[in-house]
Structures are given as C-alpha cells and as structure tokens.
C-alpha cells in the first residue's frame, strides 16, 4: 500500500489491515510511531522516510516479526532507545540515513542476525566505538559516509566478518585505520573519498582482499609513500584522482598488486610518475594522468615513448589514457606545452634531480618547539639537508641529539633555540645537475621579562609579564643566586601553572648583595633561559609582610574563615529567634500556668515574634 505524500499525522486507519505486507508512508507528517503499529504482524517492508520522527522508544516494532526492510531515512531522529529494534530477527535492510544521530549503540543491533545492509549516511556520528557492530555477523554492506567520524576505535569492526562494501567517504578521518580494516577479511569495495588525510603511509593498505578502492577528492593529501599498497593481489581498480595537493607518489608504492588494471591519477599536482611504478603493475591497462603538473624532462620520457609507439603502430594501445591532455608544468620554458608536441630530443635520457618540497616558505616558532620539514626528490640521489651553519645532514651522519632524519627525508629538529634561526635547504645533486628548495625559520624567545617590584635589605619581590597565554606549556621556573661568591649554583623555584602567578618574594637575603634572577622555560627535559636581571638588596632590613607570595592555599584559608564566621553568625541569630518564640509558646502548653504568670510580668504581657515576615501576639489579662 502506497500512502506517501498524503499529509498523514496518525496511522489509526491503517492498523486494521493486519494482512498488509508492504506499506509506504513516506513524505507525511508523522511525529511519533503509533504504539499499535506492531499489530501489522504480516508486514515485510515498511517505508517511513521523510517524516518528522525524532525519537524511537523501546519495542516500537516488536510485533513485526517478519519485517525484512525498514526505511527511517531523512527524519529528525536524534534518540533511539536500546531495544527499539528488538524482535526484528528477519530484518535484512535498515536505513537510518539523513537523521541527527550523534552516536551508535551496539544494543540497537543486538537482535538483527539477518541484517545485510545498514545505511547510516549523513548523520552526525563523531566516532565508532569498539565492538559497536559485533552482533552484525551477516552484514554485507555498510554506509557511513557524510558523517563527522574522526576516530575509529580499535575493534570497531569486530563482528561483521562478511562485510564486502564499506563507505566512509566525506568524514573527518586524518589517518588510515589500517588495524581496524584488517578485521574485515572479505572487504572488496572501500570508498574513502573526501577525508582530510595528509598522506598514505607505508603499509597503509596491505594484504587485504580489496577489488576496488577509491581515495579521491582529498583536499589535504600530498604524499603516497613506498609500499603503501602491498600484497593487494585482488585489487583491480584504484582511484586517486582530484586531490588538489597531491604532488608525490613513490616509485615503489605498489608491491605485488599483480591484478591492478585501472589506475586513476588525473586532476592532481603530480610532477611525475616513475616508469618503475608503471612496470611494477604487469596487468595495467589504463593509466589516467591528464591534468597534472608534469616535469617534462627525462622523467616524462617513458610517457613520450608510449605516445610514439601508439602513433607508429595502430595495433598498439598505450596504457596512458588521454595523452592529448598531458601538459607540462615545468621547466618554465615548457609550461603549458603538450607532451605529445615536444620532440623526444627535448627530454633527454638523463636529467638533474628535482626536489619536491612539502614545507612552507617560512616558519615563525618559539624556543622549545619542534620543527618538521619534509621533501622528496625525483631521481637519484636521495635528498640531503643543509642547515643555517652550512652543515650537511643525511640519514648516515645523524645518529642522536636534537636532529633526526626519517627514511622519507623528513628533517626533525627538537627543542628549538634562538640560534636555530636561519635558512634550511633540501638539496640533491647528481652528475646531471643540482636542485635545491629552501625555507626560512625564525625562532623567537618567549615574551617574558622580569622586573623588581619591591627591594629591601633582606628580601626582594619580583614580578614578570608575558606568560598569560603560555599556560598550556610545561611551565616556568625562577632561578636565582648571589653574584660574586664562589658558588655558582642556582636555587630553583618552580612556578605552579595551575594558578596565575605573576610575582614572587625571596626572603632571608643578605643586605647590599647583588642577586641574579632568571626566568627559565621548561619543555620536557630541556631548560631555556628566557630572561635574566640583576637586583641589589638595600642596607636596611624591612619586614616583607604583605609582599610575601600569596598562594592558593592562603586564599582558600581566608575564604573558608569568612564563610565559617558567616555560618556562626547565622546560627546565633537563629538561636536567639527560637528563644524569643519559646518564651511565648510555653505558657500555652504548660500544666502549671500559674507559676508561669509569676515569671512574665503583666506589663510585658504583650510580646511579638516574627515568622515569615508576619507578627503574632499573645496577651494576658
């Protein structure tokens, strides 16, 4: 029965149709599910999409024992009770797309052993909890696209061992959930588009059963590292197109992907695709490379040769699709030229290495922070790093200390000093030429300065400013010592970053003595002197009362004392009021009224007491 678009607000007229098998009540005005709907015991398909449902209670569909398809998409659902779907043992398709669900509960799916299709697209789900799908042993297809998923917990995909198709497109994932995906041994189709992933790391997808995989329209993807796709023996189609920042794919990205036929790399910013990569794919039939920023030198030689073979041999079909759209992005004198129009002599068989920088033009950092610079080189040799002092670093001569060079030519410099300011260059040189890309790094001191607030003969109060916005850091210390003595050991005062502390008083000092005070920034195990100043005590000794450091314990003590005094005063006032009221109430209940008359003089026979702002009077004759 089709009752869609009928402006229905209630289902009471339908509930008498007990033999109904199909019911479509989509595009109506239903706000709640009638509590008698379970009387439709013969129903097989129920479509309630595009209504105004916001809440589903326990047992809402409990009588529909043979229901196979339930469509609740595009309502306003934000709350589903744990046992809403209880009893739906034969349900095969559940559609909850386009609602306002913020989380998933494993209890929703506790009684759905037959569920094969679960659609959760376009909700507000932020993360997938561990074991959330553990009861869905028959699940075949799951759609999670268009949510806000930023975290997939370990074990999230425990339970659906037969899952074949998974959509996680258009979410907020910044890393590949490699470990979790390995819990899906039969997964064949994986849609991962439109996630803010920066790189596809080594072994990201390895030893999986994938047949088709897509990671396109990724606005932040820049790099695909070596062996990212390892032992994907069943992979046939891979889409990596329309990634606006994608500039580098390693020549050894694909290892043992012997069945890969279709590789989509168009509409990126790739400088080159190595012939080694192409040769590592023996079944490759079509390679889409158009609309990239190709380096038209020896790196593009194999593409030019493919084009020439196809022209000279009508029976030969090049793996490069759309060679008429292959344009040069560099060198500058060839930018915009079509590769097919260049003579082969213009490309050469050897060429200088080309540096691909992934760093910005300049950086402004503070002492104690960490510098990450990443670059890649097309061709040989691997790039090296030149520091501001002209020292050359590579993986071989960096062992320990603040410097680290990772296998992907990433330079890491920890615990920055002001002296680390300068130009850092990624460079590569071969017999054919030289290339270099640089960035300027400025390391700033913390904006903190010490000043003397009060100076006496035996104590000094100092203050400092500029730390107000630094409380998320490890913290600061004050170091001080007297000058002109044999010992140069500093005394250390740690500052508590949990309270906003901007002054400190040092007592038991010697008169007419110069002291050095330094504020030191602490980052993990490193200490950085931010600012130092010398202050000399006076000849006279003054009391430091009122200037000694006021800490949180003193403040709490004062507040507590005042609070206790207020409570004590309120108790005294209450006792006095009760006492006054008692003087006038006892005569009404006393057995010996005559004796009480002697106690209360007649001239005081009228008294008043207050209760809730009203006055009551008792009088004697």
Automatic annotation (TrEMBL):
Entry keyword set: Disulfide bond, Glycoprotein, Leucine-rich repeat, Membrane, Repeat, Signal, Transmembrane, Transmembrane helix
GO cellular component, as recorded: extracellular matrix; extracellular space
Transmembrane stretches, start-end: 554-575
Fibronectin type-III domain span: 446-540
Domain of life assignment: Eukaryota
Ig-like domain span: 353-442
Cross-referenced PANTHER family: NEPHROCAN, SLIT RELATED LEUCINE-RICH REPEAT NEURONAL PROTEIN
Name this protein carries in UniProt: Leucine-rich repeat neuronal protein 3-like
């Amino acid at each position: 029965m089709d009752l869609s678009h009928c402006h229905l607000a209630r289902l009471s007229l339908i509930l008498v149709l007990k033999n109904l098998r199909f019911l479509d009540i989509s595009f109506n005005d239903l706000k709640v599910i009638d509590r008698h709907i379970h009387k439709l015991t013969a129903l097989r398909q129920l479509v309630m999409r595009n209504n105004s449902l916001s809440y589903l209670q326990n047992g809402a569909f409990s009588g529909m024992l043979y229901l196979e398809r339930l469509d609740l998409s595009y309502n306003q659902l934000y709350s589903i009770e744990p046992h809403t779907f209880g009893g739906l043992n034969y349900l095969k398709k559940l559609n909850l797309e386009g609602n306002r669900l913020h989380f998933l509960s494993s209890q929703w799916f506790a009684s759905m052993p037959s569920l094969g299709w679960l659609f959760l697209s376009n909700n507000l789900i932020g993360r997938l909890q561990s074991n959330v799908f553990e009861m869905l042993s028959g699940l075949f297809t799951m759609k999670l696209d268009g949510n806000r998923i930023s975290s997939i917990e370990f074990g999230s995909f425990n339970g659906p061992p037969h899952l074949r198709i998974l959509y996680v497109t258009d979410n907020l994932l910044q890393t590949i959930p490699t470990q979790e995906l390995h819990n899906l041994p039969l997964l064949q189709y994986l849609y991962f588009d439109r996630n803010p992933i920066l790189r596809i790391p080594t072994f990201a997808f390895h030893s999986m059963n994938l047949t088709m995989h897509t990671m396109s329209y990724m606005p932040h993807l820049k790099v695909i590292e070596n062996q990212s796709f390892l032992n994907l023996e069943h992979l046939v189609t891979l889409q990596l197109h329309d990634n606006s920042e994608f500039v580098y794919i390693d020549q050894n990205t694909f290892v043992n992907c012997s069945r890969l036929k279709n590789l989509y790399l168009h509409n990126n910013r790739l400088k080159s695709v190595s012939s080694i990569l192409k040769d590592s794919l023996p079944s490759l039939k079509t390679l889409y490379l158009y609309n990239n920023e190709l380096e038209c030198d020896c790196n593009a030689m194999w593409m030019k040769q493919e084009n020439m073979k196809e022209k000279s041999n009508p029976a030969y079909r090049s793996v490069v699709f759309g060679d008429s759209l292959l344009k040069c992005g560099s060198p500058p004198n060839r930018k915009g030229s079509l590769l097919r129009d260049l003579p082969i002599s213009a490309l050469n068989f050897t060429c200088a290495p080309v540096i691909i920088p992934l760093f910005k033009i300049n950086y402004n950092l503070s002492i104690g922070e960490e510098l990450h610079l990443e670059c890649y080189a097309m061709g040989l040799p691997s790039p090296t790093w030149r520091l501001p002092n002209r020292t050359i670093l590579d993986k071989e001569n960096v062992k320990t200390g603040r410097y680290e060079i990772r296998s992907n030519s990433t330079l890491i410099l920890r615990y920055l000093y002001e002296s680390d300011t300068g130009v850092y260059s990624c460079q590569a040189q071969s017999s054919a030429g030289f290339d270099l890309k640089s960035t300027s790094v400025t390391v700033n001191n913390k904006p903190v300065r010490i000043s003397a607030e009060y100076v006496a003969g035996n104590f000094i109060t100092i203050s400092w400013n500029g730390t107000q916005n630094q409380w998320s850091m490890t913290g600061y210390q004050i170091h001080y010592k007297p000058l002109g003595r044999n010992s140069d050991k500093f005394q250390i005062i740690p500052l508590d970053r949990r309270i906003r502390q901007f002054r400190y008083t040092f007592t038991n000092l010697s008169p007419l003595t110069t002291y050095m005070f330094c504020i030191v920034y602490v980052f993990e195990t490193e200490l950085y002197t931010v600012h130092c100043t010398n202050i000399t005590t006076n000849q006279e000794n003054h009391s430091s009362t009122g200037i000694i450091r006021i800490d949180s314990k003193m403040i709490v003590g004062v507040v507590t004392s005042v609070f206790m005094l207020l409570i004590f005063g309120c108790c005294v006032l209450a006792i006095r009021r009760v006492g006054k009221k008692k003087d006038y109430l006892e005569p009404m209940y006393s057995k010996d009224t005559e004796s009480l008359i002697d106690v209360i003089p007649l001239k005081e026979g009228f008294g008043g007491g207050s209760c809730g702002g009203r006055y009551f009077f008792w009088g004697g004759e």
